[in-house]
Amino acid sequence: MSTAFTAGERHWQARLGKLRDVVRQEMVARQLGRELPAPPVRIIDLGCGQGTQALRLARRGYDVTGVDASADLLARFERDLAAEPAGIRGRVRAEHGLIEDYAERAGTSRYPAVLCHGVLMYLADPEPVLRAIAALAAPAGLVSLLVRNGDALAMRPGLSGDWAACRSAFGSDRYENRIGVSARADRLADRAARDLPFLVAEDVLAETGGSVCGYAYASPWRPKPGYRHTVEDSVFLSPGCTGRGIGSALLGSLLAGCAAAGARQVIAVIADTGSDASAALHRRFGFTQAGLLSGVGRKHGRWIDTLLMQKDLEAAR
């Protein structure tokens, strides 16, 4: 199972336990200690790697699920886990798989805390992983992201006196990291997405009280500033909550929120899984087909097409 991180994984493992790694892990652990609710709480660590933070959290009394695409890093994780007392081992589960697919696994529940540290910088398009994070986070749950700070890209070449690289860093979101992999930096303003809406629909009549039956959010269509007025919408419903008008309520409110945030165009990216429900929902709100990408996605073991739909919010005003 290969990811963009795979090319530098051997160099990454060679640096584990060195001073830089120890300091970074300690800083992350201290920040989590301030922000996480008190144990026992269920936590999922997406891109857990060798399990450093997962093991620390399990020792503090948390129930931790770690997910990673690297079989080698997970093997290292499991070797370290085997040396822990039985009580700690019983609170940890390591899962092999891609983050973007994990939320769709049968029986996967939502977590009060979702961690995703040092992952987004290796993704040319972070949106699939961000969608998985949103799907796995419980209502009012905590999400912890560790990314490279795009506003500080000039610091390292500046400290080393590489002024040409320092100057170019101010207008870029790309860099080559210490393990030789080209990576991407993020800026808080981009991830915050100009206060774009994130909506959650709850079933207040459910026996469990306030159970989540769907959610919808908007995110930037592309990271470059020239696309800042175009957003992508995402609408998700729980299987037992279809046919009740919840999708229409979510999408209608989402479009109003996008317009209020200054968006001009809304793009819907719809996987062709054999159902017309999502496309029909968007057509009811004035979306029109903008394109069809053949065989670009893979889901449940088969290649699928992707339908692009578009709505002009300026025309609707």
Can you characterise this structure?
By secondary structure, the protein is an alpha/beta fold. The protein folds into two domains: 6-147, Rossmann fold (3-Layer(aba) Sandwich), CATH 3.40.50; 193-316, Aminopeptidase (3-Layer(aba) Sandwich). It has 13 helices and 13 strands. It has helices spanning 9-15, 19-35, 52-59, 71-82, 86-89, 99-102, 127-136, 155-159, 163-169, 188-192, 246-260, 277-284, 313-316; strands at 42-46, 63-68, 92-96, 111-117, 137-146, 174-176, 182-184, 198-203, 211-220, 230-237, 265-271, 288-299, 302-312. A six-stranded mixed beta sheet has the order 8-9-10-11-13-12. The chain has a five-stranded parallel beta sheet with strand order 3-2-1-4-5. The protein has a two-stranded antiparallel sheet with strand order 6-7. α11 links the parallel β10 (230-237) and β11. It is globular, with a radius of gyration of 21 Å. The N and C termini lie far apart (47 Å).
Summarize the structure.
With 317 residues, this protein is of the alpha/beta class. The chain has 13 helices and 13 strands. It has 2 domains: 6-147, Rossmann fold (3-Layer(aba) Sandwich); 193-316, Aminopeptidase (3-Layer(aba) Sandwich), CATH 3.40.630.
